[in-house]
Amino acid sequence: MIFLLAAHPLWSQIKVHPSGVNVNASDATTVFLTFGRLTDQVPVEAFWCGELTDAAPDVGKKCDPGTIFGRLPIRYDLSRLNPDGSYTDIMSIPPSVARRAYQAAQQGQDSQFFYVRRFSSLKGGPDEYVAVTCRMTGGGARVPFALLDVKITTDTDLPVYFVKKGTHPPQPVAEIYYNGTGVLKGRWEVVLPGDEPPTGRDLLPEASLPINERGTQRRYTEISRFNVFLPPVGKYILTGPKPKKLPSEMEGLYMLILRIEASDDKEADSNLASVGGSGLVHNGAVAGFPLPPFRYFVGNVENELFVPNNGELSLLLPGNNAKHPADEPIDFNWVESRLAAFYRLEIKNSASQVVLSAILQSGVGSYRAPSWLKDRLEDDVLGWRVVGLDFSGKEMLKSEWRILKLIR
Known about the structure:
By secondary structure, the chain is mostly beta strands. The protein has two helices and 31 strands. Helices cover 4% and strands 45% of the residues. β8 (80-81) and β9 form a beta hairpin.
């Protein structure tokens, strides 16, 4: 016995908060989790299951293979190892997992199920499994306040709205689906032509970020603010800024983005003292996905609906055979497809050699090329296209190639 205690001095130290949560038995649920007391471990995969079994010779309890309901989808994996040694995770339970757990309960199994994260040691130690208990509740009673889906639309429902210089696009609205109840607060910001476009992480709600990253998202021109209480009905229509407040003085592509700030929600709080830290972190209005922007283009172009033809993606800017100053940043923009999980932007030189390939998350539809790109072009001519990928990286959609000329 003495030998066993000495052989496991630090193992089984990882803690998580909350260690148990209420989840919606009939719909999706999103919860912010904080893991602490990691030493040399790194996170691996995460599963939902109906029963646990001893993980020996590893540490903790892992999923019983015969009761697995699902695995955390790649597109919802927003986990982060932080400088202080903590690990934050957004547990986004898909409706399919909730249905399987509910069906199992109807057949006589327990009304609770488990979310299990596996951690692997970098020094050859045993794996460690950490479980969070998910308690099913009818109608989502007392579940954490979280955003399940957000759609920003106008009365035309175009993916990109075109307006002439000096006029304004229609007023957008955000159709928000959520769990729980709480205060929705935040602001509308606009990305002007020439601004560095936001990344997928810039578009996350504040509550989806670890505490050390909050306040570090790229900021843009603020248009208006909002602060509303959402009752437990699951859907809310948030009216966007009035059209006259949306700038249209410069020609180019604009992006109106919805910035949701973290709110105080007891069911969503993380108690850092429970995982070896200190303080309380508010995580109300968390989401497991970037919030989509509303995009409009100012220029002498008539409105038209961009629908990919023959399995192609539609490119926006720069236009084909356009000319661009070599000393200015190059932003590539395209209309996204609902079929693609990721995108690959490809740039080739005049000899058809690929000089840059970037994998991008869905939700942004824009990419700013690095400053060294022009140094890889011998004649200042490049071709570019966008490829839509599924979750496994398989190509699904392709755009046409466009030519861009740099002017020095």
